[in-house]
């Protein structure tokens, strides 16, 4: 029996919270495995599915959807028996569960040992009265400080307790005010936030902006590793207070649950140096991503081993320069990024990928590419490709040579853009080279060049649609 049942996230959270009740009960098996009591009406398949559902929900604390895992459930069951009160006790093999965890298919969540510090800016209405008594109401942003309470903050803290996370807010004392401004928090300034957060936690700090729009909350947040001073995840959640809080902690668990803790640095076979203490595990199973050309014409690719957020955006911008009319970041997991690309109907999207010298194809899995930061040129566009896309050799080469560090070849900060491919007239027969001679060094050092618009929603997580 292959388990691939799609289960709603709401039910997933309920099962995680009820994982040890009378019906959804779990106890350690005698052999060190995992035993679950499930309601039984004679249907062994359904009972096995339910037990597996509880296993994954309990291991991941709701951060992994059991419906995304393809596995022969019967093959990992060590023992089962019908109890006197009519339940079925299903025991999973300890070795099989460890293998499942080791495969990377399950994000194991054990909470955070260090406090989670949330720097939150929010808009508030302030009344100003002039000498004539006229009231002028203005919207101002401020940093929420420790001790403040409202429904949203209470929900953040209460949910954190359930997730084994001690959520705290800064004092915003004189030292904090001197170190961090409202603008720093809204833009997710990783270096300043990390430095100011060190007195509160050695773990994770969150720079965030909370606003209300059409009766819904919008919560933009950046996760920052205080120890390294690096921002490793960003997203905007929208909805009711409970929906936003749910999504926030789901992102936290997904991005941190499988964080590597072995050596401090490794070199991948594709040449990318990665600081393992900073970067997270990517996708171990890509079967559910539906890579390649989809029926609607979009081309979905997975780029693995990107060293930082700047590189992710840089790759996206180069997709546009290479001839794709649209390039969108669909999902991010660790250093792996899923891009959805749209090209003109007359262009074979797979052939466009040939111009990317820094993206090496996976020889076994179509749609998977490895980013090699040791390659100086991200793309080299031949004449025939340039004629199809309208790329200007002269413009692109000049922009690349003159662009300061931390900016893309257009001269703008490296941030996601909604525009299509750059256009220009033909001027030369030589290939266009987008040079990045110091790419390897840039990938290893801290970067604060990317200043995102906190009011704009960037799709950097939340699942592949």
How is the quaternary structure best described?
Answer: single chain
Report the strand count: 22
Query: Residue ranges: pLDDT <50 for 5 or more in a row?
Result: 1-32, 258-280, 385-465
Distance between the termini: 26 Å
Helix content: 25-40%
**Strand content range:** 25-35%
The total number of structural domains is 3
Provide mean pLDDT, rounded: 70
Rg on CA atoms, Å = 25 Å
Please state the overall shape, judged from the principal axes of the Cα atoms. Answer: globular
Structural class: alpha+beta
Tally of individual helices = 13
Described by strand count, sense and barrel closure, the largest sheet is:
6 strands, mixed
Helix-strand layout with pairing:
Elements: E1 2-3, H1 9-17, E2 25-28, E3 34-39, H2 44-60, E4 71-72, E5 77-82, E6 87-92, H3 94-102, E7 116-129, E8 135-143, H4 151-162, E9 167-168, H5 174-179, H6 182-187, H7 190-197, E10 204-213, E11 216-225, E12 230-239, H8 241-256, E13 266-267, E14 273-274, E15 292-293, E16 299-304, H9 309-322, E17 326-333, E18 336-342, H10 349-352, E19 359-361, E20 368-371, E21 377-381, H11 383-389, H12 393-402, E22 432-435, H13 439-444
Parallel strand pairs: 7-9, 7-10, 16-20
Antiparallel strand pairs: 1-4, 2-3, 3-6, 5-6, 7-8, 10-11, 11-12, 13-14, 15-16, 16-18, 17-18, 19-20, 21-22
Helix pairs in contact: 1-2, 4-8
What does the model show?
The structure is a single chain. By secondary structure, the chain is α+β, with helices and mostly antiparallel strands. It folds into 3 domains: 2-102, no CATH class; 116-256, Rossmann fold (3-Layer(aba) Sandwich); 287-444, no CATH class. 27% of the residues lie in helices and 27% in strands. It is built from 13 helices and 22 strands. Strands 7, 8, 9, 10, 11 and 12 form a 6-stranded mixed beta sheet that branches. Strands 15, 16, 17, 18, 19 and 20 form a 6-stranded mixed beta sheet that branches. A hairpin with a 4-residue loop joins strand 11 and strand 12 (230-239). Helix 1 crosses helix 2. The longest helix has 17 residues, at 44-60. The protein is globular. Residues 1-32, 258-280 and 385-465 have low confidence and may be disordered.
């Amino acid at each position: 029996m292959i388990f691939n049942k799609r289960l709603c996230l709401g039910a997933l959270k309920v099962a995680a919270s009820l994982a040890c009740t009378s019906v959804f009960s779990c106890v350690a098996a005698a052999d060190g495995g995992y035993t679950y009591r499930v309601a039984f009406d004679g249907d062994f398949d359904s009972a096995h599915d339910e037990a597996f559902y509880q296993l994954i929900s309990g291991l991941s604390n709701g951060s992994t959807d059991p419906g995304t895992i393809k596995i022969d459930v019967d093959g990992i069951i060590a023992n089962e028996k019908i109890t006197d009160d009519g339940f079925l006790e299903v025991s999973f093999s300890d070795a099989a569960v460890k293998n499942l965890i080791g495969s990377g298919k399950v994000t194991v969540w054990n909470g955070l040992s260090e406090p989670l510090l949330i720097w939150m800016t929010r808009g508030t209405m302030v009344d100003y009265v002039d000498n004539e008594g006229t009231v002028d109401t203005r919207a101002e942003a401020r940093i929420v400080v420790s001790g403040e309470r409202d429904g949203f903050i209470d929900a953040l803290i209460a949910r954190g307790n359930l997730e084994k996370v001690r959520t705290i807010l800064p004092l915003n004392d004189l030292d904090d005010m001197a170190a961090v401004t409202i603008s720093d928090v809204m833009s997710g300034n990783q270096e300043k936030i990390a430095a100011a957060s060190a007195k509160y936690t050695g773990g994770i700090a969150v720079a965030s902006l909370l606003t209300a729009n059409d009766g819904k909350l919008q919560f933009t947040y950046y996760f920052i590793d205080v120890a390294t001073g690096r921002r490793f995840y960003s997203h905007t959640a929208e909805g009711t207070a409970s929906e936003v809080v749910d999504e926030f902690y789901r992102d936290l668990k997904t991005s941190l649950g499988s964080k590597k803790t072995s050596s401090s640095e490794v070199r991948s076979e594709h040449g990318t140096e990665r600081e393992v203490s900073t970067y997270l595990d990517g996708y171990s199973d890509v079967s559910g991503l539906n890579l390649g050309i989809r029926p609607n014409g979009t081309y979905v690719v997975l780029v693995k081993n990107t060293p930082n957020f700047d590189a992710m955006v840089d790759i996206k911008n180069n997709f546009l320069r290479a001839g794709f009319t649209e390039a969108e970041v669909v999902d991010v997991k660790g250093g792996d990024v899923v891009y959805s690309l749209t090209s003109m109907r007359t262009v074979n999207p797979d052939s466009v990928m040939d111009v990317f010298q820094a993206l090496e194809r996976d020889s076994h899995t179509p749609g998977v590419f490895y980013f090699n930061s040791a390659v100086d040129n991200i793309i080299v566009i031949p004449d025939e490709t340039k004629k199809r896309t309208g790329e200007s050799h002269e413009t692109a080469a000049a922009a690349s040579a003159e662009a300061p560090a931390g900016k893309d070849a257009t001269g703008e900060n490296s941030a996601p853009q909604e525009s299509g491919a750059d256009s220009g007239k033909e001027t030369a027969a030589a290939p266009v080279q987008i040079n990045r001679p110091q790419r390897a060094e840039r990938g290893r050092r801290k970067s604060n060049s990317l200043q995102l618009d906190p009011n704009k929603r960037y799709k950097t997580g939340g699942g592949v649609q």
